[in-house]
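Figure 3 (text version): structure tokens given as input.
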């Protein structure tokens, strides 16, 4: 249920901001905006100054006389602003047999048309950069000052590729890495779809591992290939009557070691506990500022009865940005994400990345939205900014029915000095709409398979 709620909130905000851009631009240039719709298809309910608030469809011959009908429609996968005299998502072409009127889209200049068509994209870009800017200014950035590999679980993908706990990574495809954020960026962003050549130190000796992209697990399904050193398991809850409660463990305890072996996160703790059923383990615990020694014996099921997570106890660096620097960094983030988007598209086209791994549909968007919200408002807003930028980039592409497709037709009409016949515009938009529906069906199918 949370997924549905967060999906509705996310899509609702993005669509509203996008369509608000078109709507305001149309009003500013003297065009009539007959409909402002969130969603497609059947009108569920809406409001206009002529009929007030009503449910269901309006009469087919309804004329708002310049008053906009603000509505919510059945299919919540987008939205549109129906501008008089324009062939758009509504595919209404009743105006075709009459002369252009002053308030119609087709009667306006090239610059006015371009302003209206690109205003939705501009609003999505504005939303993204404002969120990035605010996040940079208020939160800054935190980097983990290590490139040393933490726990490597036996028979895990990292283990099969030859990595071991304590490996200190120095270069990824020839690029030096000095912290875990740089390492993660080289693994998953800068070398998107590419094979990796990793150089690292192990026990003072330089080692080298070549990794094909296909051997790197899907980060969404299986998590990251490597985790950094510095994570410690932390108890978040203790079950009544459990071995952990009998041993004196409390919520908030950080487990430093088991049987003298330093812990590298909850995965290692779980591995050791599950392999030592009914065997006493000696744990060193950090509780506040006190270090305690406890003895705990896992049950016959290989569990001690705690909920456990991870806390980073290694070195970090907090980077703060001033007001103007925050904006500059936001601009850099926008450029980096734009480059990454088009790089991903090119690799999908060339077959280096599978479509289902590069494109998220409504189901995965809902999951991402819910997970980002679990992190907190800042996490959700960051996800919203990334999605808003993606929406802007997709919409400006020269594809029929998208804003970029409309822009191409405006440019063509300006060059040939006459309007493209309405029947041709409708046919182009119909074709684009069908292709988008086919793509959406494929993406949703991929989403379902990924569950």
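Below: residues designed for each position.
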């Amino acid at each position: 249920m949370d997924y549905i709620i967060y999906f509705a909130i996310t899509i609702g905000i993005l669509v509203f901001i996008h369509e608000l851009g078109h709507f305001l631009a149309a009003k500013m240039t003297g065009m009539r905006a007959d409909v402002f719709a969130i969603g497609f298809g059947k009108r569920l309910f809406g409001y206009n100054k002529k009929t007030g608030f009503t449910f269901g469809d309006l009469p087919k011959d309804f004329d708002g006389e310049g008053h906009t009908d603000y509505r919510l429609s059945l299919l919540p996968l987008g939205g549109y602003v129906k501008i008089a005299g324009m062939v758009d998502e509504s595919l209404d072409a009743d105006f075709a047999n009459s002369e252009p009127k002053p308030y119609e889209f087709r009667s306006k200049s090239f610059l006015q048309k371009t302003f209206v068509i690109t205003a939705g994209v501009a609003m999505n870009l504005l939303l993204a950069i404002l969120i990035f800017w605010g996040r940079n200014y208020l939160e800054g950035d935190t980097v983990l000052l290590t490139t040393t590999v933490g726990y490597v679980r036996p028979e895990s993908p990292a283990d099969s590729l030859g990595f071991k706990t304590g490996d200190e990574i120095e270069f990824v495809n020839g690029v030096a890495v000095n912290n875990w954020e740089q390492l993660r960026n080289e693994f998953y962003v800068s070398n998107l779809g590419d094979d990796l050549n990793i150089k690292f130190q192990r026990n003072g000796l330089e080692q080298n591992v070549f990794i094909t992209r296909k051997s790197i697990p899907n980060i969404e399904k299986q998590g990251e290939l490597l985790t950094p050193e510095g994570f410690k398991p932390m108890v978040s809850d203790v079950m009544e009557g459990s071995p952990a409660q009998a041993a004196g463990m409390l919520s908030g305890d950080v487990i430093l070691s088991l049987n003298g072996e330093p812990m590298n996160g909850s995965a290692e703790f779980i591995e050791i506990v599950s392999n030592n059923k009914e065997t006493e383990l000696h744990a060193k615990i950090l509780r506040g500022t006190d270090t305690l020694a406890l003895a705990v014996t896992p049950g016959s099921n290989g569990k001690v009865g705690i909920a456990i997570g991870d806390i980073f106890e290694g070195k970090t660096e907090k980077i703060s940005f001033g007001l103007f620097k925050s904006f500059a960094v936001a601009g850099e983030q926008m450029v980096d994400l734009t480059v990454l988007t088009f790089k991903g598209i090119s690799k999908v086209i060339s077959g280096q990345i599978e479509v289902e791994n590069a494109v998220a549909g409504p189901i995965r968007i809902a999951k991402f939205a819910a997970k980002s919200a679990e992190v907190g408002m800042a996490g959700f807003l960051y996800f919203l900014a990334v999605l808003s930028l993606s929406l802007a980039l997709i919409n400006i592409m020269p594809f029929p029915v998208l804003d970029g497709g409309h822009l191409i037709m405006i440019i063509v009409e300006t060059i040939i000095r006459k309007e493209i016949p309405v029947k041709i515009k409708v046919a182009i938009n119909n074709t684009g709409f069908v292709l988008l529906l086919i793509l959406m069906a494929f993406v949703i199918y991929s989403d379902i398979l990924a569950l």
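DSSP finds 13 helices and 15 strands in the chain.
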